[in-house]
Amino acid sequence: MSVELNHTIVHARNNRESAEFLARILGLEVGAEWGPFVPVATANGVTLDFATVAAESITMQHYAFLISEEEFDAAFERIRKAGITYYADPRMKQPGEINRNDGGRGLYFLDPVGHGMEIITRPYGGFPE
Fold first, then answer.
1. Which candidate in 28, 80, 83, 97 could, as Cys together with 23 as Cys, close a disulfide (CB 3.0–4.6 Å)?
2. What residues form the membrane-spanning segments (predicted)?
3. 51 in helix, strand or coil?
């Protein structure tokens, strides 16, 4: 399995307006609002979750990558060798741990500018790869 983007959060001034705009342009459906997000799923399984933020704020973005168990092992080793702090949870309350959600493995870490990165070996909900 090659590395795939699973989902990302897209900041907007108005999450519903932006989600509807993109869905309309691309011929996609707007999903049901979930908390602060209005999702738009692409045909290849990537979901763009639109969130409203102040236009002038610089906000951390989140990128999730669905990878194989072997790719996880290699990435995890590189993260550890580089001394990068990693977490089992997105709120970064469990440093130095990985999670085993849905029968897979996952972790979160920050890139050099503070974007939240995530690697997972199983999609959320335990659905088949």
1. 28
2. none
3. strand
